Every structure is written in C-alpha cells, then in structure tokens.
TrEMBL record:
MF (Gene Ontology): branched-chain-amino-acid transaminase activity
Protein source organism: Elioraea tepida
Cellular compartments per GO CC: cytosol
Name of the molecule in the record: Probable branched-chain-amino-acid aminotransferase
Enzyme class: transferase
Pfam families: Aminotran_4
Stored InterPro entries: Aminotrans_IV, Class-IV_PLP-Dep_Aminotrnsfr
Coiled-coil ranges from the UniProt annotation: none
Pathway participation: Amino-acid biosynthesis; L-leucine biosynthesis; L-leucine from 3-methyl-2-oxobutanoate: step 4/4; Amino-acid biosynthesis; L-isoleucine biosynthesis; L-isoleucine from 2-oxobutanoate: step 4/4; Amino-acid biosynthesis; L-valine biosynthesis; L-valine from pyruvate: step 4/4
Family assignment from sequence similarity: Belongs to the class-IV pyridoxal-phosphate-dependent aminotransferase family.
Keywords: Amino-acid biosynthesis, Aminotransferase, Branched-chain amino acid biosynthesis, Pyridoxal phosphate, Transferase
Co-factor(s): pyridoxal 5'-phosphate
C-alpha cells in the first residue's frame, strides 16, 4: 500500500506530496515540527506535543494552521489511511509560501501544514538489548534551542559524527563544560552520589515531551531527581546514563566515547524507569509493577 501524506488540506500518495519551492520552511528553516509516537494505534503523549507545537509557533509568530481539535482529526486520519499500529508521526508547520525575503511577508500568508507517518519496530518489550552508545560533541547550536525549529544542521552534523564513530547519539557540551542535551534527546545521569539528574529548562535546551512526562511519573512514584547543570566530568563518571525522547523512550547509554558507563549494562535506576515508562505507554500508568517471576 502506498504511504499517504497530508499537505494543506489534501491527502496524497507520499510520492506525489510536495510544497512550493518558495516555502519558507525550505528556504529559511522558518518552520517548526513535532514527532509523535503511535503505539497500538493510539498517540502517546500527543497532548504535550501539541502544547509544545503551539508554544513554538507563538515564539516565532506563526498562527496555528487550524484548531487543535481539527488538527487531531487530521493526525488520526493520516494514521488511519496508512494503517499504522506502531509508528512515528511527523508534522511540520512553516510560515508559508512567499517571495523570498528574510523578513516576514508584508502580507501574511497561510501557514503550510505537512503530516506524514511511518512504521517502526514494536515498542521494546525489555530494556535488555535496548541500550546504545554515545559520543560527546561541542554544542554549536543557536541561542533558541527551546523552539523546536526545523533548523537542525548542527544536530545533523553531531549525529553524523556519532555515526562515524559507531555510536547513535551525540551528547552536546556547552563552552562552560556542562552537558546541555543530546542531538535529538534529553540526557539523564545517576551520579556518583546516586542522584538522578537532568539539565534544567533554564539552560538552552528543548523542553522534551518525554522528559516532561517522565518527570510527572517520577513525582507520582516518589522518585527524587535534580534539575540543574552537571559537567562533562560528572557525565563520564556517572553510575548510569540514559536518554529520553519520543523515539528513544527511556534508553540506557552503555558507553560514552568508547568508555563503559558503570559496568556497561543498564543500571537499576534506568531499569526501573524503563518499566515505569513502559506501563505509561501501554496505558497502564496507574497499575503497580508486576512481581518478578
């Protein structure tokens, strides 16, 4: 079956979907986006993702292309037409099509909405085999990383550097030697004192939706954590490290720059959080964990 995309009011075969050459998203990265996980045919944490979409649009002064209720219907229809059970939905909103000029169009133009979805492997049943590796990389991005813009060239270069070194993520290091986040993830550590830590949103980082939901789950389960800066050295000496995102969920980092994190296996805190988040994804958020067999 041909993949179906949505482009400004039309559902089209993926190979026929396109937008104008003077779309400002293409020419200036004047656009924002979101990625939503689809599990068992339903959206995971779409509320936080749409909240962040609206915030990003406000920050760069692009109007919502339609009401949230109408947008939800479009997203659901794209998933339905593609018969997706487990997948990733991508939506992008650009300022629209206008004659090329750096300033906003003198006469406002309608924003352009594009939605696609693709199948992915099923949600991992176990944390074992789900771990990954990372490298450290200088954070070369712009000063508004809190906006989920499509201007991702520094992230692309960081991810490529990771790939060329046999890793899957790049952990970004600010000029002051502190960790900001991953190229496309939020970074967490369990430090030498056993404290669960992640960077605070006062830093120049993206307010991750999975980060937000995991923090809610930590509070619900009475698990203490610290939001604040930590150094590259603290990252390298951490007992455990993991990343979160709509595609990583809770994913252990087993090695950084070729050196094992802890004993090189998922640690007890990461295992517990993987299990807690897995229950949330499966709609079992308020159920107690099952006893080990």
């Amino acid at each position: 079956m041909s993949r179906i995309a949505y482009v400004n009011g039309r559902y089209l075969p993926h190979r026929e979907a396109s937008t104008h050459i003077e779309d400002r998203g293409y020419q200036f990265a004047d656009a924002v986006y979101e990625v939503v996980h689809v599990h068992d045919g339903r959206f995971v944490d779409d509320g936080p993702h749409l909240d962040r979409l609206e915030r990003s649009l406000r920050e760069i002064r692009i109007p919502m292309p339609m009401s949230r209720a109408a947008l939800r219907r479009v997203l659901a229809e794209v998933v339905r037409r593609n018969r997706i059970d487990e997948g990733l939905l991508y939506l992008q909103v650009s300022r629209g099509v206008a004659r090329r000029d750096h300033a906003f169009p003198a006469k406002p133009v309608p924003p352009v909405l594009v939605v696609t979805v693709k199948r992915i492997k099923p949600y991992p049943a176990s944390i074992d085999g789900w771990g990954t590796t990372a490298i450290t990389h200088p954070d070369l991005r712009w000063a508004r990383c809190d906006i989920k813009t499509v201007g991702l060239l520094p992230n692309v270069l960081a991810r490529q550097a990771a790939k060329e070194k046999g890793a899957s993520e790049a952990i970004l290091i600010a000029p002051d030697g502190t960790v900001t986040e991953g190229a496309a993830t939020t970074v967490w550590i369990v430090d030498q004192e056993g404290r669960l830590r992640t960077r605070d949103l006062e830093a120049n980082i993206l307010p991750g939706c999975t980060r937000r939901v995991l923090i809610e789950l930590l509070r619900e389960n009475g698990i203490p954590f610290v939001e604040g800066p930590f150094t590259e050295q603290e990252l390298r000496t951490a007992r455990e490290a993991f990343i979160t995102s709509a595609t990583s969920f809770v994913k252990p980092i087993l090695a950084i720059d070729g050196v094992a994190v802890g004993d090189g296996t998922p640690g007890p805190v990461t295992r517990r959080l993987f299990d807690i988040f897995s229950r949330h994804v499966r709609g079992q958020r308020n159920e107690p964990p099952r006893a080990a067999a």
